[in-house]
Write a structure and sequence with these properties.
single chain; 274 residues; alpha/beta; Stationary-phase Survival Protein Sure Homolog, Chain: A; 2 domains; nine-stranded mixed sheet; two-stranded antiparallel ribbon; 13 strands; globular
Length: 274
């Protein structure tokens, strides 16, 4: 089996190495990913634009490739340029952060998997839901760092790929969206559906001094006299039972959501626009 691994956090993000380590005993693995963080770009594609392509080395000394484009670009380049044959599976991740609900269409991780499906390749999007209260730690010098614990995510991803190798994808499923909590009450995977939304979004501007610390530039009007705006968000905390958000935040267990790329609705044969 040949597996292409990509992500949206960048080729040197710890999650992409974790994904490689999770499945390298099961298949031939090729890593092609953006050269820098591309979180939140959705399914953006750099059509008819120059892309810088480089060979690089991951932390374990293995070969990988970087692309100066989006996660979807990386999947296209990896499957149509780097690999000798079309991969049997694409894995996007392991993303450092949560990707749940109908908001997945803005996720570079999930949309890399969507792009793979459009190329005729089944895919898995994998994300680690990090609890900031326990993930931030201090070293012996008092410096803060993020402690990424991919152990459960790697195990679940390994088990999922092994099942796919043995049994194939379920009929009607194009891709799996996997989310694993860093702090979990149960390692058992819950099969879920998409929540209505993940983020409550709002817009703030630079006219309120209370928002000053959210802007990384002076809170002054620009030369044209326009206000500066920022879209902010808070994670939704209440989810319906059986949803991906419910699994992560209420049950505190891994969530696995089967998805289809075709979002067309059936059953409107009697509804016509006149």
């Amino acid at each position: 089996m040949n597996i292409l691994i990509s992500n949206d956090d960048g080729v040197f993000a710890p999650g992409i190495l974790a994904a490689k380590q999770a499945v390298e005993d099961l298949a031939n693995v090729c890593v092609v990913a953006p050269d820098k963080n591309n979180s939140g770009v959705g399914r953006s594609i750099s059509l008819f634009k120059h892309l810088e392509f480089k060979s690089c080395e991951l932390e374990d000394g293995s070969r990988a490739y970087s692309v100066s484009g989006s996660p979807a670009d990386s999947v296209i380049v990896g499957s149509k340029y780097v690999m000798d044959e079309k991969p049997d599976l694409v894995i996007a991740g392991i993303n450092s952060g949560v990707n749940i609900s109908c908001d997945v269409t803005s996720s570079g991780t999930v949309c890399a998997a969507f792009e793979a499906v459009s190329l005729g390749i089944p895919a898995i999007a994998a994300s680690l839901f990090i609890n900031p209260k326990t993930a931030y730690k201090q070293d012996e010098n008092g410096e803060w760092y993020m402690d990424y614990d991919f152990s459960l995510a790697k195990k679940v991803l390994h088990d999922l790929v092994l099942k796919i190798i043995n049994d194939g994808f379920p009929e009607g499923v194009d891709l799996f969206n996997l989310n694993v909590p860093s702090d979990y009450d149960s390692p058992d995977v819950m099969m879920t559906h998409l929540s209505h939304k993940m983020l409550d979004k709002q817009v703030i501007d630079n006219t309120n001094k209370e928002n000053e610390d959210l802007f990384n530039y002076p809170l002054e009007e620009n030369q044209e006299g326009d206000d500066l705006l920022m879209i902010t968000s808070d994670l939704v905390r209440e989810y319906e039972e059986g949803s991906d958000g419910y699994a992560l935040l209420v049950e505190k267990c891994p969530s696995l959501t089967p998805l289809k790329v075709n979002m067309a609705c059936d059953g409107l044969n009697d509804w016509k626009l006149k």
